[in-house]
Amino acid sequence: MKQEKTCPLNPVQDAAAGPQAVRGTAVFCFLVTIIGDIILSRKVLPASFFTPAFLLAAAFWIILLIGIIWIWRHKEGWHGRRQIIVFGIFALYLIVAVVFYKEYQAAYLLGLPSSVDPELAPSLAGGIVGVRVFLVLIGITAGIPVGPKIDGREYARRLREKTIQQEANWAKESVKGAKKDLQETVERLKSTLTPEEMQALLQELQSSSPEDVIPSQTTKSDLDTAGVKTDDVKESGWGHGI
């Protein structure tokens, strides 16, 4: 039975299918955060833009825009030290949202539609502050590169390749072990048998294949060392010419 051949993984394909960021999710979350901030704060921005709360908010809008441009140009997203920087910026964003919670809540409260129940409006405005932070966190998490999803067929192919490779390694180790045992047996026979006994043993082994019993690289030299004339063996032949 012929063994099924499998081609190795294409290195170019593997490089292209390396860990990538979910860029669409990151861009969507950042854009929703920026646009939602501007729309809900539109009534207080003209008068309160230069207050610390909204100056910091505008600074984070610019940072989010830079993040959108950067992650759209880099499929791998932020990895390594960039993750530390990004999460450090998020920590600052969270601190600002907590410190200026009242200011943002009041601004969102004025930006809500008039149809919203006045009793629920403050809670809703405060919840929007939390949703804004949560959206930024989702966008940052989506920018972390992850490995490509492997379907069932690809998984089976890779598993088959690993199985074939493991079987080949086992066979190689088995051959090495058998060869080592054979060489140890030959060395042990050389040290315990006399030249006459060795020659008699060789006569008994003539009916079998000599390559299966004595390694080819040690046959002549080992026999000479043991005192067996190789000319005598050559004249009699292996298996009497069979």
Question: Care to give the gist of this entry?
Answer:
By secondary structure, the chain is an all-alpha fold. Helices cover 69% and strands 0% of the residues.
Care to describe what's here?
- The chain is mainly α and 242 residues long.
- The chain folds into 2 domains: 14-142, no CATH class; 180-242, no CATH class.
- It is 69% helix and 0% strand.
- It contains 11 helices and no strands.
- It has helices spanning 11-16, 23-40, 45-48, 52-73, 81-99, 101-111, 121-142, 152-192, 195-204, 219-226, 230-236.
- It is rod-shaped, with a radius of gyration of 39 Å.
- The two termini are 31 Å apart.
List key phrases describing it.
242 residues; mainly alpha; 2 domains; 11 helices; 69% helix; 0% strand; rod-shaped; disordered N terminus; disordered C terminus
Layout of secondary structure:
Blueprint: H1 11-16, H2 23-40, H3 45-48, H4 52-73, H5 81-99, H6 101-111, H7 121-142, H8 152-192, H9 195-204, H10 219-226, H11 230-236
Helix pairs in contact: 2-4, 2-7, 5-7, 6-7
| Mean pLDDT over the residues | 76
Tell how many strands the DSSP assignment holds: 0
Number of domains: 2
Helix tally equals 11
Fraction in helix:
55-70%
Structural class: mainly alpha
Poorly predicted regions are: 1-16, 232-242
Radius of gyration: 39 Å
Shape: rod-shaped
The major β-sheet equals: none
Spatial separation of the terminal alpha carbons: 31 Å
Order of helices and strands: HHHHHHHHHHH
DSSP strand (E) fraction? under 5%
